[in-house]
UniProtKB/TrEMBL annotation:
HAMAP family: AstB. Pathway: Amino-acid degradation; L-arginine degradation via AST pathway; L-glutamate and succinate from L-arginine: step 2/5. This is N-succinylarginine dihydrolase. The lineage of its organism: Bacteria, Pseudomonadati, Pseudomonadota, Gammaproteobacteria, Pseudomonadales. Pfam families: AstB. Belongs to the succinylarginine dihydrolase family. Keywords: Arginine metabolism, Hydrolase. Its EC number is 3.5.3.23. It comes from Metapseudomonas lalkuanensis. Substrate binds at residues 19-28, 110, 137-138, 214, 252, 365. GO terms for biological process: L-arginine catabolic process to L-glutamate; L-arginine catabolic process to succinate.
Length: 448
């Protein structure tokens, strides 16, 4: 039976702006208050989706959230009509309005954690929406995320959905940005690799000192239990606290894996040799041959990795067994990173080709190619059961491009968030989008 890794890319929302809301994310903070271009951001993302589709990869679309989130503002004490709520928040608490206007759901790598049917006890694909409780602007995403996932993967014969973990620090969960799966084939049993930044209950584990560790060991363990994963198919590893303090806010900023290959910076993990040995041993028992591609700090510093988002790249399997690395333009602009990539692809290792994409709008907000996509391994019959309205085709790309051109602004600053017309524009656009993607009613304004 054929099986595929399908990339579902987040469609950048109409309120894409540079709020600088993500403490610990260097790019997000350094571009705070700059003027954004939501139209360009969405079109750049659609361009990447189209290019991967044309290369023969299975590609889907993940819808953005309703923003501004008026319900969240109401829960914080602002009252009146929707326009009055926005006006009061702009006058009294602009940081809250900015948080409730964030288009951060574009980072679908944080939307949830996915375990394929080959790994789970009940033979279904399991999804757990991430609580993202480390940051307020992201903690309000998971109810809509769950509804969108439910509309995309609706057949309960093949798909199982779990609510977000308790929204407390002990179970901080940032989704697939801290989760990788290794396998010999996408339809075969694999090894799920959970990377955490700290333990909430065990003081033996160190923690970063400058920036918060967003993923806890306890959250990763809870997801493994919910998904029915056996111990023989799970490996836990702690992220190096020192790299978190250098701006590596998620594991996908310092490593990326696919198939049998882990592409990682030598400073990514604690007890690296032990982690690699466990991955090698467990994948070997499942018919795989683990390959670790280590990037030495002498070639690429952690600072270079953070600035270029070298590891926040997509590692994709070609039909001939070689791998392709999708990187942002910032990698080519960094002399150390580009020199390393040229050496890597000429070394006859598993990674043979690099393709560069211009994703400047998303990069400036703190996320690259890997942040924009959720990976879901699906067998052929499971792929057929997915809502086909979200699967990328040339026709859908043309429709979504026209939709963006029609509804999105080409300039957005913080002061524009106070414009009540922005909410109306967003709702009009999203109402049309749910019809294009055949999602049904998933947004609060449609449900209420």
């Amino acid at each position: 039976m054929n099986a595929y890794e399908v990339n579902f890319d987040g469609l950048v929302g109409p309120t894409h702006n540079y709020g600088g809301l993500s403490y610990g994310n260097v790019a997000s903070q350094s571009n705070s208050q700059a003027t954004s271009n939501p139209k360009e951001a969405a079109l750049q993302g659609l361009g990447k989706m189209k290019a991967l589709m044309e290369m023969g990869f299975k590609q889907g679309v993940f819808a953005p959230q309703e923003r501004q989130d008026v319900a969240a503002l109401r829960s914080l004490g602002f009252s009146g009509t929707d326009a009055e709520v926005i006006a009061k928040a702009a006058k009294e608490a602009m940081p809250l309005l900015a948080a409730c206007s964030s288009a951060s759901s574009m980072w679908t790598a944080n939307s949830c954690t996915v375990s394929p049917s080959a790994d789970t006890a009940d033979g279904r694909v399991h999804f757990t929406a991430a609580n993202l409780n480390c940051k307020f602007h992201r903690s309000i995403e998971h109810p809509t995320t769950s509804r969108v996932l439910g509309a995309m993967f609706a057949n309960d014969k093949f798909f199982a959905h779990h609510a977000a973990l308790p929204a407390v620090g002990q179970f901080g969960d940032e989704g697939a940005a801290n989760h990788t799966r290794f396998c010999n084939g996408y339809g075969q049993a694999g090894v799920e690799f959970f990377v955490f930044g700290r333990s909430a209950f065990d003081a033996r584990y160190p923690s970063p000192q400058r920036y918060p560790a967003r993923q806890t060991l306890e959250a990763s363990q809870a997801i493994a239990r919910l998904h029915g994963l056996g111990a023989e198919g799970v490996v836990y590893a702690q992220q190096n606290p020192a790299v978190i303090d250098q701006g590596v806010f998620h594991n996908d900023v310092i490593s990326v894996g696919n198939g049998e290959v882990l592409f990682y910076h030598e400073d990514a993990f604690l007890e690296t040799d032990k982690v690699l040995a466990e991955l090698d041993g467990k994948l070997g028992k499942r018919g795989g041959r683990f390959q670790a591609v280590r990037v030495p700090r002498s070639a690429v510093s952690v600072e270079d990795a953070v600035r270029s988002y070298l590891f926040n790249s997509q590692l994709l399997s070609r039909a001939d067994g070689s791998m392709l690395l999708i990187v942002p333009e910032e990698c080519r602009a960094n002399a150390n990173v580009w020199s390393y990539l040229n050496e890597l692809t000429s070394a006859q290792g598993p990674i043979r080709e690099v393709k560069v994409f211009d994703l400047k709008q998303s990069m400036q907000n703190g996320g690259g190619p890997a942040c924009l996509r959720l990976r879901v391994a699906l067998k052929e019959h499971e792929l057929a059961a997915v809502n086909q309205g979200v699967m990328m085709t040339p026709e859908l790309h043309a429709t979504l491009t026209a939709w963006v051109e029609k509804h999105y602004r080409d300039r957005l600053s913080e002061s524009d968030l106070a414009d009540p017309q922005l909410l109306s524009e967003c709702r009009t656009a999203l109402d049309e989008l749910t019809q294009i993607l055949k999602l049904g009613a998933v947004y609060p304004f449609q449900l209420n």
